[in-house]
Amino acid sequence: MLLSPEELRKQGIGVFEIDRGGDITYHGPGQLVGYPLMYLDARGLDLHGFLRELEQVIIDWLADYGIEGGRKPEYTGVWVGDEKIAAIGIKFNKARKRRGFVTSHGFALNIKAGIAEQGFSGIIPCGIQEYGVTSFEDLTGIEMSLERAAREILPHFMGRFGFDPASAAGE
Fold it and tell me: What's the rounded Cα separation, in Å, for the pair 28 and 77?
């Protein structure tokens, strides 16, 4: 955190400590935040497999727009070059009535232009000092609503995790 408690109060910024993987991040306007709740054993996934599949959902959507998203071996999340476009912080809870894990928390995908300056200027995102942050609109110049991004990402999510796409359409 780069801001003092007084500066946080002055700017109306709330800080919440939560129990999940990752370090400090920003959640706010201009981000598509998704919190998939899944029983991993039902999908044949372990903890790392789930993280990689979630990253791939976002990488696949970015590819629809000609953006080459990728991974950095030492960090979780989705990157475009040396800038992070999506942060992922998951908590893996032991299932109560069966073996395995249930996920909580999720991803934050930066959509709106200028989010690096607006949301991340007072923190060291994910504790990573050497790399920056970007957004879909900053990369493409295409205006994208959060609703449209969610609609377009959902089929990638459904396919990657083996859900029936018709169930997402309400059919």
Answer: 18
Our count of domains for the chain comes to 1
pTM of the model: 0.79
Task: Give me the CATH number covering residue 63.
Answer: 3.30.930.10
DSSP β-bridge partners for residue 105: 90
Q: What is the pLDDT of residue 16?
A: 54
Which residue range(s) make up the domain with 75?
A: 18-162
Q: Which residues are catalytic?
A: 126
In this predicted model, what pLDDT tens digit does every residue of 105-127 receive, in sequence order? 789 899 998 776 665 566 555 55
Residue 10 to residue 109: CA distance in whole angstroms: 27
State how far the Cα of 154 lies from the Cα of 48, in Å rounded to an integer. Answer: 21
DSSP bridge pairs for 34 = 107
